[in-house]
Amino acid sequence: MAGEKPESALTVLLAFGANLGIAVAKIIAAVVTGSASMAAEAAHSVADTFNEVLLLVGLRRSTRPANRRHPFGYGKERYIWTLLVAVAIFGMGALFAFYQGVETLLGHHHGDEPDPLVGYVVLGVSFLLEAISWQQALRQVRSDARAEGLSTIVHIRRTDEPTSISVLLEDSAALIGLLLAFAGMGLHQLTGSAVWDGVGSVLIGVLLTAVALVLGRINLNLLIGSQADPRIVGDVRARLAAAPEVEQVVDVLTMIVGADRVLVCARLDFRDVLTSVEMERACVRLDHELREAHEEIDEVFLEPVPRDDPELRARVIARYGPALGHKGTATS
C-alpha cells in the first residue's frame, strides 16, 4: 500500500499554520473596521483552518493497512474527508460571505469604516502568508505532474491524490478573495458607499462556491470509482495481449482504490492447448509482470473466459457500446 506522502503532510501543515494566524487577524480586523468583505474573508480563513484539520485526518486514516472487513484498504477514505472540505468551504465560507454581502447591500451595515487602515494591513500580511502556502502547494502539484509526465492541468483532472489539489485551490481562492476584499474596502472608503463592500463579499461567496464545486466533483468521481490513468490501462491491455498464453483480451477493468493504488481485473481467453497448470502459472507470471511494470497496481485479478460466450459479450457491449464491444478489448 502506498503510504502517506511527507510532502502532502507538509503542504497541509503549512497551510494550517498560515490560515490559523490569518483567521485570528481577520476576525480582529473585521470587528475594528466593520467591513462586510473583511468579515467574509474572516469566515473564509476559519473554514480553511478547519479544512486543513480534515485533510490531515484524511491523510492519516487513509493509510491504515487492509484487513478482513476492508480487504482493499482504506485508501478511499481520503476522498471522503476531502469531500467534507468542499462542503465546509461552501457551508462555512460561501454562505456566510453571501449573508454578509446581501445584508450590506440591503443597507444593514455599520456605517463608515472607523479605521480601514487596520484592514489594509491585515489584508497585506494575509496575502504574504497565503502566498507562501500557495507556493508550497503549487510546487508539490507541479512536482507530482512532472513525475507522471503530465501537464499541471491534466494532472489536476486525473489525480487520485486530491489533498495537495485541495490546498492549492483553497489558497488560490484565498489570494483572489483578499484582492476582492481589498477592492471592496477601498471603493467603500473612496466613494463612501458600503455597496462596494457588499459586492466584494458576494463575489467572495461566488468564488468559494466555485472552488467547492470543483473539489466536490473531483472527489465524487474518485468515490464513485474512476478508472486508472489511460496510459496504465493501455499498457496493461498490451502486456496481456502480448502474452503467448493469451488468445485474446476480452475485457479489462481498472479502478482507483486510493492514492497511487489501482485495482486491475481482466477477462482473458487463454489458448485451448494450455493445461490447467500452465494457465495457473501464466496468471501468476502476468500478475508479477503487471506489478513490476506499474507500482500503482495493488491487486490483479485474471479470469479465464471464452470470447464467444453470448452473455459475456452482451455485458461488454452494454458497457462500451457495439463498436468497442465487438473488438473484445475495451477498457474501463
UniProtKB/TrEMBL annotation:
GO terms for cellular component: membrane. It comes from the Bacteria. InterPro entries: Cation_efflux, Cation_efflux_CTD_sf, Cation_efflux_TM, Cation_efflux_TMD_sf, SLC30A9. It holds the Pfam family Cation_efflux. It is a multi-pass membrane protein. GO terms for biological process: zinc ion transport. It is found in: Membrane. Keywords: Membrane, Transmembrane, Transmembrane helix, Transport. This is Cation diffusion facilitator family transporter. It comes from Actinomadura namibiensis. The lineage of its organism: Bacteria, Bacillati, Actinomycetota, Actinomycetes, Streptosporangiales.
